[in-house]
Amino acid sequence: MTKTLAELAQCLGGRVVGDPEATVRGLGTLDDAGEGQITFLANPRYAGKVATCRATAVVLPPGAEGYGRNVIEVANPYLAFAKLLQIFHVEPRKALGVMAGAHIGADVRLGAEVTIHPGATVMDGAILGNRVTLYPGVVLYPGVVVGDDVTLHANVTVRERCRIGNRVIIHGGTVIGSDGFGYAPDGREWHKIPQIGIVVIEDDVEIGANAAIDRAALEVTRIGRGTKIDNLVQIAHNCVIGENCMIISQVGISGSTTLGDHVTLAGQVGVAGHLTIGDNAMVGAKSGIPGNLPAGSMVSGLPAFAHRDWLKAMAVVPRLPELRKTISTLEKRIAQLEEAVKREA
Amino acid sequence: MTKTLAELAQCLGGRVVGDPEATVRGLGTLDDAGEGQITFLANPRYAGKVATCRATAVVLPPGAEGYGRNVIEVANPYLAFAKLLQIFHVEPRKALGVMAGAHIGADVRLGAEVTIHPGATVMDGAILGNRVTLYPGVVLYPGVVVGDDVTLHANVTVRERCRIGNRVIIHGGTVIGSDGFGYAPDGREWHKIPQIGIVVIEDDVEIGANAAIDRAALEVTRIGRGTKIDNLVQIAHNCVIGENCMIISQVGISGSTTLGDHVTLAGQVGVAGHLTIGDNAMVGAKSGIPGNLPAGSMVSGLPAFAHRDWLKAMAVVPRLPELRKTISTLEKRIAQLEEAVKREA
Amino acid sequence: MTKTLAELAQCLGGRVVGDPEATVRGLGTLDDAGEGQITFLANPRYAGKVATCRATAVVLPPGAEGYGRNVIEVANPYLAFAKLLQIFHVEPRKALGVMAGAHIGADVRLGAEVTIHPGATVMDGAILGNRVTLYPGVVLYPGVVVGDDVTLHANVTVRERCRIGNRVIIHGGTVIGSDGFGYAPDGREWHKIPQIGIVVIEDDVEIGANAAIDRAALEVTRIGRGTKIDNLVQIAHNCVIGENCMIISQVGISGSTTLGDHVTLAGQVGVAGHLTIGDNAMVGAKSGIPGNLPAGSMVSGLPAFAHRDWLKAMAVVPRLPELRKTISTLEKRIAQLEEAVKREA
């Protein structure tokens, strides 16, 4: 595939500085890109490399020095890079229909241009939108509803009646709608509380590999529009996750907790149950959240407190043995002083 | 389905106060339940809502004020709620037999009324009890033994010769009997130690999604009767887990560790290997357990110590920078005092 | 199977002390082994048991007391145990070919003596070496390349174009080559950056159950030769893991981090992104690594510092409330001293 800079500028919403008829047929990094390739400057730290790179064109932010090169100027070069990858390196999807070896139950409704690979199973009454791809080993339980332009990778499981929005991607092995972990104790044994709710995954959500999102006890576990969830994340029953959150790998969120929009939970964070985490809150890696967080919080630690204070406190931790010794020494010096003062009195 | 209060009271082991012939056909929360529904009071904090709720009947603990409503009095209303959900909302299981697209090996013995979905595989010599359900993608390796009334959800893997008891539920993607992580070093490389033991899952165990329970090196990794294990939990080779334990999401238990009965490990806890954790021990979320715990322990922290003491210690952590400054100031004041005392002496 | 001690000594690279024609047909522990079995002494602590054990022969390190028994002397008895298990307890693999119910795409190349179980799927253009075993539910996406003597357990997913070396074992449910977690923000939403790189798994790697190893954004996520990875581990895009590392269960490694050779990460460790961890570094369980580690480091904590110092610092943590009280008392005593000294002046 070959594109002129004029064509690319239009796709990227940018403007050409230089030759709009110059053509490129791929992209590379500032270090690697050569003749016929386009590259980009995302980090101003590397601005000097624009002078020496060998690419046919460079995507730059407004005002950056182009060193006489062909430039496409865009507001957000990193975003442009994502779009260029899509243009040059992602093969357009081909619909293959229901392939031999796929298992389709009764009363299933399939949209247009679906691909259902061998070894995928769609159980009774499931409804699939247009351009849905189910890879081998995907299992949709009865009554699952899937929107348009959805990709479910190999061995994804979606349990009964759960609903997946449009443009959702779920990676291999992830389980949507497993039973919430709910038991009534009788003082001796645990009695299972049937989990009769569902999971709703809204539009434009992406979920990594081998994650687990439990169905609600009675109502809905919800993943809000545009939220991105990494591999091996656990989201317990009745959680409500807001829009455009970033939930990094191996995070665990306990039952009935609500996240606002644009919340970031770094890797291996744990959040207790029945909490409310405000919009734009950010939680540092491996932190444990025992209570509500107001919007805009930035916390770390186990249990977590303000990130800045945590950094300062953690700087003291390695010196605790020394501090303890100092205190012990001070105690002795004070005792001697007290003795001396008493003698003089 | 419609039930009289008299019928329900019998199922729940309770007694009716009010009209035993009143009928209900579903259940709801204190806030939501309406005419024809039954609700329950589990938390005394909400006792006032019993007066204003619109349900046909309320399940109450002995002695709670019924405000003139139809009441079923039971010792444990939360447990009654679990049973009511089962009665009204869980469809009775239908046996579908070995469905087209299921793969059954040689010398397999199947009990009565099984359902083996398309895409499930039962390898040679496996033995299944009565009323077993295998969802699509379940793989039973050769020689696996499964009891009665077992449900294995989609894409569960059970490795060779492992044994699953009666009334066990395992959620999607979980792997039972993967090789333990055992290698002999030669100073340069790691040599695999064949893991020839098995996993035994006793009766009434439930295991969440995408968990991993490794087979023993030589003998048995055992999950005791009635224990409940959440999603993404890791249990290493040769562990012996007691009865009726609660092991919350993302916990990891290292090899050859023994848990007593009724042990609770909260989310993301890590337990070192070759330890003994006593009955009824409780470990707070994200804690790390480096040594044995006596029965009845309640610990938190990394490494863990008494939970109460941990709470107090953690309250000091954010103030460490301040304490350090205080110590430094005290040091100067003492030096000045020493100077003053010396001058006077 | 029956072997003479002379035959076994040759397999193990050791020498017989005693009767080279004595035969054994299995192995057991020092406590359990009986007539016709061989046992081994790995831990010098149990040397006394050699005198009283009932085994036909004992594998001992050079110089250990044999108490008149038949002995095979080897440099590393634990390694010998691994080999003996292989000899006596691991059934030789039988090639079963492409079994009915397996799905093989177009332009697939299969080596000699493969076993592809029912329910496994090999998509278009994949290349498999000799003696490869794919269990049910394994999915190889288009263009995957697999070496010789590889075993992929049930429900393993390998995404497009990833490459698996020779003698690799991957346990159930693991996903190789899922998309890296890469998004470009526009201030409001997250735009997916297509992940067009691959994963390369080198020779002699073993990966546990339900792990996730993401493909690189542009180039290669690499797992070095001989490295062993436990269950539920997360390795993010563009990581380069060295040779013969040990990565224990539930570890998470963030994007673009490089590990040297022989690195050990204990359970539930988290490593931040874009770091370099030197050869032979060891990280204690549950630690968080925020920065580079030089070769030979031994660290623990969150954030981690020298393991020895961490042990000492953690010993102080439970005493923090007491230290705080001491400081407060010292403050008062100093104030009184200052008062006294001032009065006298």
Write a structural description.
3 copies of one chain form a homotrimer. By secondary structure, the first copy, chain A, is α/β, with parallel strands linked by helices. Chain A has 2 domains: 3-89, Udp-n-acetylmuramoylalanyl-d-glutamate--2,6- Diaminopimelate Ligase, Chain: A, domain 1 (3-Layer(aba) Sandwich); 97-308, 3 Solenoid (UDP N-Acetylglucosamine Acyltransferase, domain 1). Chain A contains 5 helices and 39 strands. In chain A, the strands form 7 sheets. Chain A has a 12-stranded mixed sheet, with helices on one face. In chain A, strands 8-11-14-17-20-25-28-31-34-37 form a 10-stranded parallel sheet, with no helix packed on it. The longest helix of chain A has 25 residues, at 320-344. The first copy, chain A, is flat, with a radius of gyration of 28 Å. The model of chain A has no long low-confidence stretch (mean pLDDT 96). Chains in contact: A-B, A-C, B-C.
